[in-house]
Amino acid sequence: MIRTALLVAGKDLRIEARSRVLLWQVVPFGVMALLLSGLALGPSHAGNSDAAPGLFYLVVVLVTLLMINRSVSIERRPGTWASVATLGLDPAGVFLGKALALAVELWLTAVVLLVGAVLFLHTTLHGTVVAIPSVVETLAALAAAGTLYGGLSAGGAASTLLPLVALPAFAPLLIAGERSFVAALHGGALWEWWVIVTVALAAYVAVGILLYGVLEES
Amino acid sequence: MEISAAPVVTLRDAVVLLNDFPLLSGVTLDVPGASLTVVTGPNGAGKTSLLMLLGGLVRLSRGTGVVAGVDLASGDLRELRRRVGWLGHEGSFYDDLSARENLVFAARALERPVDLIGPALERVGLSRRANSPARRLSAGQRRRLGLAWLLVRRPALWLLDEPYASLDDEGREFFDDLIGDVVDAGATVLVSAHDPLRAEHLRPRAVSLVGGRVAEDPS
């Protein structure tokens, strides 16, 4: 399972490095969304507003949905799907590999988005740095949940249903991530929200390992 | 590879349904090992569906079938998939990876030696394009890359879906030569095509499908 996971993750990351969709399309979209959010808040409110972490995670969700669709679509071209299916890869390993690759892509995107949060939403540098561990873990949980729901909505018109089916699953992660970010910026109990994200991450990874093969077959 | 003429494919009244629509509506077919079978028929006859059934890529809805030793109704389709190789007419790999990277991925997935990749690329005439992204290859070169993927895999059963589409005469001849070598080495090859195979010297067995059923089977 681990061997397959590393193989699939390496392949997905190599494809991203070659295609540069993340660099030239997804990241600029995220930065623009953050910039627009900052403009919507206005310069007098941005720095003091509790809305900044929420806006950051709103942008993260949009970016995540784009990247999940991308991750699914590279596997679902008819010829590619059939050829790769005949490799008989362990579905649990495929799930872990795709989730790992998506997490790495989200982490790289988050580096830019956190800088954007400081610049456009005027979050404090210290508070933003303190929030980094919780952001890393929240994004890992989003990657696991997103890979699972990407498998569920893969193929045909179902792919446009991804936001509808995934957002309820993302909601607790987003709330916990946003609360952690607020706590990092303004002080408060950071670890309580962190525990929620950790439990959710473990749950999504476990469910993905168990059910991804069923989703693939269906 | 051990050469055996024992049936690799045995189908009896095989039905495949997609949302209650019959893709195959009662196919009975035996394919001996180390043989070449060409499945012909008009568009919508069920050629691709038959190959997908044999590759474990769609489920058998009714009837019985055994492919490469795996029961289609009750067996492990994932195990069956590992025993077959698929070449689709759409291209069979990741467009953003180079020819070599695609083959490395397939080899590592199946725990095959990476050393096989160089000779496979050489055999299909793609050595000089080994580092080109698959998306930059012509239709014929993509087909050759698909064959290199199969040469690295060396499956017992080769399923080639419309491999001659958009190939010129030289490409067809190359395909025929390679398929001949593969069959001589003991593999079983099923090819779907609109027209009968030109390469009569390979002595292919022609099976004609119409409306999801076998209309003509010389055996």
Task: Please give a structural write-up.
The complex is a heterodimer of chains A (218) and B (219). Chain A has one domain. Chain A is 85% helix and 0% strand. Chain A contains 9 helices and no strands. In chain A, helix 2 (21-41) crosses helix 6. Chain A is globular, with a radius of gyration of 17 Å. Chain B has 219 residues and is an alpha/beta fold. Chain B is built from 6 helices and 10 strands, in the order E-E-E-H-E-E-H-E-H-H-H-E-H-E-E-E. In chain B, the strands form 2 sheets. A 6-stranded mixed beta sheet of chain B has the order 6-7-8-3-9-10, sandwiched between helices. In chain B, strands 2-1-4-5 form a 4-stranded antiparallel beta sheet, covered by helices on one side. In chain B, a hairpin with a 2-residue loop joins strand 1 and strand 2 (21-32). In chain B, helix 3 (99-109) runs parallel beside helix 5 and helix 4 crosses helix 5. Chain B starts with 6 loop residues before the first strand and ends with a strand. Classes of the chains: A mainly alpha (218), B alpha/beta (219). The interface between A and B is medium-sized, with 20 and 33 residues.
Furnish the topology, listing elements before pairings:
The complex is a heterodimer of chains A (218) and B (219).
Chain A: H1 2-19, H2 21-41, H3 43-46, H4 51-73, H5 78-85, H6 91-120, H7 125-152, H8 162-186, H9 190-217
Helix pairs in contact in A: 1-6, 2-4, 2-6, 4-6, 4-7, 4-8, 6-7, 6-9, 7-8, 7-9, 8-9
Chain B: E1 7-18, E2 21-32, E3 36-40, H1 47-54, E4 62-67, E5 70-71, H2 77-83, E6 84-87, H3 99-109, H4 117-123, H5 139-153, E7 157-161, H6 169-184, E8 188-193, E9 205-210, E10 213-216
Parallel strand pairs in B: 3-8, 3-9, 6-7, 7-8
Antiparallel strand pairs in B: 1-2, 1-4, 4-5, 9-10
